[in-house]
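Hi there,

I know you've been waiting on this one. I reran it after we fixed the sequence typo, so this is the corrected version. Both the input and the resulting structure follow.
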Amino acid sequence: MNQFRENRQLFFSKIKDFWHDIYGMEYALFDIKKDSPETVLRIRQVTEQIGHIFYKTASLLRQVDDETFLRLGFPAETHSFIRLQTLPVESVIARLDLVVTDSYIKVLELNADTPTFIKETFYVNGKVCEKFGLKNPNDGCEDQLRQAILQAIMMSPRSPRDAGNIVFAAHSDHEEDKWTTMYLKELLGLRSQYMDFNELQLIEEPIVENQKVVLSRGLYDKYGEKIDVLYRQTYPIEHLLNDEDPITKEKVGQMLMKLIEQQEVTVVNPPSAFLLQSKAIMALIWGLHEERHSFYTSEEHIAIDNYFLPTYLDPDVFLQQGQSFVKKPAFGREGDTVEIFSQTGRKIEEDIHKTYRDELPVYQQFIELPETTIQTEQGPKRAHYMYGSFYINGKASAIGIRAGGKITDNSSYFLPIGYSKRSKTD
């Protein structure tokens, strides 16, 4: 096993700026799950159908009143922000979390605003496939990702065609966030900068000296230059909302949102991505489906029935019908604060982290994640697994697997996927 560990460490150490171990724990597996081309195609076809339903629902959401937004968990300070549509697509980079078996595919949630797992699936998966002599199912997806980012920036209200200060920002003390953001910056290939969020400065009101404006309203980089496009791939809006200046106590996050609304700076992913981030949207979709509402076509109702799970804003239906269910926060991430309940309503599993205990809870029918055997530095292990399927500019793209416990949390592994180079599609 020591030899296996050495081989794994040697292999991943050659991949530049990649966090194959996180917090001293094994993350990227030196292992691969073989999937058939047919399975990969099926996942992508279903991703397109699910993504279409979410994006169609966004058009309805922009028309609802503030009271409905509050019921769906959106803080009042975000309402005008999430009604914005600054790009033709709702999200540039989104990821669906899917349960995939031979008999069905079900969506657990959509990460529309700040999905992680990007460098792993778009780049590292291919390196592992090379090592194992398998075909990479994500071949060509990097170019699709590059074109999507480029298109989003060029179509932004403050496009670099007019002024070109593009800044990719992250919290540099978080390794995964920093290197994911740097990966996207380098992939884009345009002249741009990377900066820590703490290096950026907000100017809410113009600064005037001798009756001349020396600094206009906007977001500025550490060199004092106004930023036109801010790419903040890993920083959630719900966290930004509460950001304060440590000295002045000003709500700098809310100030930034106002600047975005007033087109003083463009942000990617766009505001509409946050509109779809709340898991309560799945309760809305399911409620409209149960009513057989005419907002969805008959084909869309069939897709919802096939690929969505019953989801509500209270557990009553599951308790009445004696069904096991999951309680999850509307804006939770990485399995944090997720709880699983039995058919009798008894809690049988929970994540130890409770960061989102005050968030609006959403109740979803429980579905068991399939299991597989994975190879780790400690030897073979049985693990539950879930697919992350990216939806890029409204199109299915790269896929990857997270493997771990019944609740997929931040201690889960990255399991690469591939298929034999001699396949039916060759």
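Quick highlight: The radius of gyration is 22 Å.

Best,
R. S.
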